[in-house]
Design goal:
The chain is of the alpha/beta class. It has 3 helices and 8 strands, in the order H-E-E-E-E-E-H-E-E-E-H. The protein has a single domain, classed as Cupredoxins -  blue copper proteins (Immunoglobulin-like), CATH 2.60.40. The strands form 2 sheets. It has a 4-stranded mixed sheet, with no helix packed on it. The structure holds 2-acetamido-2-deoxy-beta-D-glucopyranose (8 copies).
Length: about 160
């Protein structure tokens, strides 16, 4: 009994200790390259990790979307999905730095979470959490599909 309980306790401790904070900077110089808005553009995050979006420069949003419906909030495309959405945040030039946190819960641990910036989505201002590079739904393919969706500028994040 004692050893079984110890194993449970150790397992709990191990998964707690393994949880990571993963940071994506939101800002950068988007003059010639809108993809620079998210640095890095894609990350890997496991169960209980927390992805932090650090708004540092410029006027941007981080809004979850679906691969098939880029530049549109996931919730607008499928109302059962309660996607993350920072709304537009103007960080100035490091003058109003804020963070949005996305905890990786069991519900989303095995999903690719695509996201975009409202102001640069059609130009490459997109990224992903837990992207499968071998799949046809990869980051390059998402960028290409968002560039075809110029209509994104009309939708409120
Ligand atoms: C951003 O990039 C453009 C083009 O490369 C450059 O002219 C500009 O000085 C850069 N801005 C900053 C703040 O680095
Ligand atoms: C644009 O920025 C992205 C993200 O930082 C980078 O991976 C890519 O190489 C850049 N493209 C160019 C043409 O500099
Ligand atoms: C968030 O951005 C601020 C301003 O650039 C920077 O000082 C800080 O180190 C960033 N935090 C992380 C954990 O990257
Ligand atoms: C931020 O971007 C939004 C959407 O493009 C725009 O309506 C708003 O005026 C911008 N805010 C600032 C301070 O530039
Ligand atoms: C909406 O998302 C749910 C999962 O959250 C999925 O089961 C359902 O098939 C989706 N609906 C459509 C129309 O894609
Ligand atoms: C932004 O702030 C940095 C120092 O933090 C400065 O070097 C840079 O020139 C500023 N850029 C603009 C466009 O004001
Ligand atoms: C996610 O995938 C892992 C590995 O295949 C599996 O152990 C876990 O149960 C999955 N999580 C959910 C919520 O399906
Ligand atoms: C990644 O995508 C490839 C191609 O669709 C697929 O064979 C593979 O199982 C995927 N890997 C994961 C971890 O889902």
């Amino acid at each position: 009994m004692v050893s079984a309980l110890s194993v449970v306790a150790l397992t709990g401790l191990a998964s707690f200790a393994a949880a990571k904070q993963i940071w994506i900077q939101v800002g950068g110089n988007t003059t010639d390259n809108a993809s620079a808005v998210f640095d890095p553009q894609q990350v890997t995050a496991k169960l209980n990790d927390i992805v932090f979006f650090n708004f540092t420069q410029g006027n941007h949003s981080v809004t979850q979307s679906l691969f098939a419906t880029p530049c549109i909030p996931a919730n607008a495309a499928n109302s059962t999905i309660n996607g993350f959405d920072s709304g537009l945040r103007d960080a100035g030039n490091f003058t109003a730095v804020t963070q949005l946190s996305v905890p990786i819960t069991p519900e989303i641990e095995n999903m690719t979470l695509w996201f975009y910036d409202y102001n640069t989505c059609g130009e490459g201002g997109v990224g992903g959490i837990n992207v499968n590079d071998s799949d046809y739904e990869n980051l390059d393919a998402f960028v290409v599909s968002t560039e075809k969706h110029v209509s994104c500028q009309q939708l409120i994040p």
